[in-house]
Design brief:
281 residues, alpha+beta, four-stranded antiparallel beta sheet, 2 helices, globular
């Protein structure tokens, strides 16, 4: 009887030691997890700083003109998205959240406000990319109305078209009448003439050369080559005017998430902030 009590006592002691052992293991696991999180955060910070330093090497910018301010008055913005310039030096800014386009003269004075919230012709639901052709006519990606709208220099609607778009984000032209639209939700580039007539398309969902995962920015250089910001594939792809793949430039995750649109002023590409469109409000 006494022996059985001793055995029982030893068994209890062994069982009683398990919680202490588990507690030590949990502490080791938590310590490892905390270390992993700290390292991950540090890597993210280093990546951000590295991208900022890289950008600083190539872009030596100075502020020549500042326009806007928060609000919905003339020349103000709720969320400025993209910029385009016409042949006279006037520039146009899409106000994504304000659902309109603001036009400024070369000195930065507000000249015209185009559009308002809505679904009718001339109205917008979160406009994003825009392009001004050599004649001064304005093309706007009316993103969540899933269409392109074309305006004259006075802001009058000339043409509205939707060729099975799903959230088009950016638009560019080659100056010869071809208009390129990044059909972001459908993962492809669509090509039209200046009147909105469909010409061709390329891309499709995928990771291979010439394929896209959420293409956003698009631009055309003076030689007619087309560049596409292939956001989720973290690269910029270069094509000829007919959509033949030429090359791809890899970018970092941070750069991919902070690229919004591609603009080609003269011969330099400028990457604007906020690649991904904000969630629809």
């Amino acid at each position: 009887m006494a022996r059985s009590k001793k055995v029982l006592s030893k068994t209890k002691n062994k069982k009683g030691s398990n919680p202490k052992s588990m507690g030590k293991g949990a502490k080791v696991f938590i310590g490892f997890l905390a270390f992993f999180v700290i390292v991950l955060v540090l890597l993210m910070v280093v990546n951000v700083l590295n991208n900022a330093m890289t950008a600083a090497k190539y872009v030596k910018a100075r502020v020549d003109l500042e326009v806007g301010g928060t609000g919905d008055g003339p020349g103000q913005f709720k969320e400025p998205w993209a910029v385009a310039v016409d042949g006279q030096g006037n520039f146009y800014v899409t106000d994504f959240a304000g659902r309109r386009v603001e036009k400024f003269d070369p000195m930065g004075q507000p000249v015209l406000s185009i559009g308002a919230p809505g679904k009718e012709d001339g109205q917008f639901d979160q406009p994003s990319g825009l392009y001004v052709d050599p004649q001064g006519e304005i093309y706007v990606c009316d993103t969540f109305n899933h269409r392109i709208q074309k305006f004259d220099t006075d802001g009058n609607v000339l043409k509205v078209w939707n060729h099975n778009f799903f959230g088009p984000r950016s638009i560019a032209g080659d100056g010869l009448g071809r208009i390129y639209v990044s059909d972001t939700g459908n993962h492809k580039i669509q090509v039209f003439d200046a009147d909105g007539n469909y010409l061709s398309e390329w891309g499709g969902f995928g990771t291979a050369d010439g394929k896209f995962r959420e293409p956003v920015g698009v631009t055309v250089d003076p030689q007619g080559f087309v560049y596409v910001a292939d956001s989720d594939n973290r690269r910029i792809q270069k094509f000829d005017s007919r959509g033949k793949f030429i090359a791809a430039i890899k970018v970092s995750l941070v750069a991919a998430r902070t690229m919004k649109s591609l603009i080609w002023p003269s011969r330099m590409v400028i990457f604007m902030p906020a690649m991904r469109a904000p969630k629809r409000s």
